[in-house]
Write a structure and sequence with these properties.
The strands form 2 sheets. Strands 2, 3, 4, 5, 6 and 7 form a 6-stranded mixed sheet that branches. Strands 1-8 form a two-stranded antiparallel ribbon. By secondary structure, the chain is of the alpha/beta class. A hairpin with a 2-residue loop joins β5 and β6. α4 crosses α8.
Length: 237
C-alpha cells in the first residue's frame, strides 16, 4: 500500500503541473467592440446589403441554407437589410450570379445601385457532416467581412466555427442491440436534420461581436462590451 502511495503522489503532482501549464497556454485575451471595430462607430452604417455567400465547402446546398438565415440575424442587430431575394434577382439581371464575381468590384457601386451604407461578404469555409459510429456532428465554419461603401474600409470582421451534435442526445440500452439502435437513431437524425437552425446558430454567434445598429436600443452604447480576441496573430502566441 505504501509503495502504491509513493508512486501515486509524484504522478498526481506531475498531472497537476501539466494541467497548470495547459491552462496557462490556453489563456484567451479579451478585447472590446470599441477597440476592435472603431470604424464601425465612426461611420455608423444604417443600411446593409447582404451578398450571397461564397461557398468553399464541399456541400453544394450549404450556400442556400446559410443565405436564407443571414438577413434575419442582421435585422435583429438593428440594421436595415435589403430583401435577399430581390438583391440576388437584381444581381442576376446584371449577369452577376456569384459573389466571386463581385469581390473585385468597386464597393462604391453598391451604394450607387442599392443605396447601401455597407456590404456584407460571407464565406462558408466548412460545412462538414461527420458520421462516427454512434454519433454525428455538423461543423460550420464561416468568415464574414462588412465593408463601407463610402470609404471601402473594413468596418467589422469575424471568423469562427460552430459544431452541432446531430445524434439527438437520445440514449438507448447497452449491448449489441443498444449499439444497433443508436446507429439507426443517428443515421435517421442526420438524414432528416433541418440545417437552417444550425446556420442561424452560426450567424448569431458571429454577430455577437458586431456593434449594434441604429434600430437597436443599445446603439452606440456597446463599445465596452468584451469578447475573446480570436485574431490568429494573437491567439498563436
Amino acid at each position: 500500500m505504501k509503495k502504491t502511495s509513493r508512486i501515486f503522489c509524484p504522478l498526481l503532482l506531475s498531472l497537476l503541473f501539466l494541467g497548470a501549464m495547459v491552462s496557462g497556454c490556453a489563456t484567451v485575451q479579451m478585447t472590446t467592440k470599441g477597440e476592435e471595430f472603431p470604424n464601425m462607430y465612426e461611420e455608423s452604417p444604417v443600411a446593409i446589403l447582404v451578398l450571397p455567400p461564397i461557398n468553399e465547402s464541399t456541400a453544394a446546398d450549404a450556400k442556400q441554407y446559410y443565405a436564407t438565415t443571414v438577413q434575419e440575424a442582421i435585422s435583429y442587430w438593428g440594421f436595415y437589410t435589403f430583401p435577399y431575394e430581390i438583391t440576388t434577382d437584381i444581381l442576376k439581371m446584371e449577369g452577376l450570379y456569384d459573389t466571386e464575381l463581385l469581390v473585385n468590384m468597386p464597393i462604391s457601386k453598391f451604394r450607387e445601385y442599392f443605396g447601401a451604407d455597407a456590404v456584407l461578404f460571407t464565406t462558408i469555409k466548412k460545412w462538414d457532416l461527420s458520421y462516427i459510429v454512434i454519433a454525428s456532428t455538423l461543423t460550420v465554419a464561416i468568415e464574414a467581412e462588412l465593408k463601407s461603401t463610402t470609404t471601402e474600409q473594413t468596418l467589422w470582421s469575424y471568423r469562427g466555427t460552430v459544431v452541432v451534435d446531430l445524434s439527438g442526445g437520445q440514449q438507448v440500452g447497452g449491448g449489441l442491440a443498444g449499439i444497433i439502435a443508436q446507429l439507426i437513431i443517428t443515421a435517421v437524425n442526420s438524414a432528416v436534420a433541418d440545417y437552417v437552425p444550425y446556420a442561424k446558430q452560426a450567424n448569431y454567434r458571429a454577430l455577437s461581436t458586431l456593434p449594434f445598429g441604429k434600430y437597436h436600443p443599445d446603439h452606440m452604447t456597446d463599445q465596452s462590451m468584451s469578447f475573446p480576441d480570436l485574431t490568429p496573430a494573437k491567439t498563436d502566441l
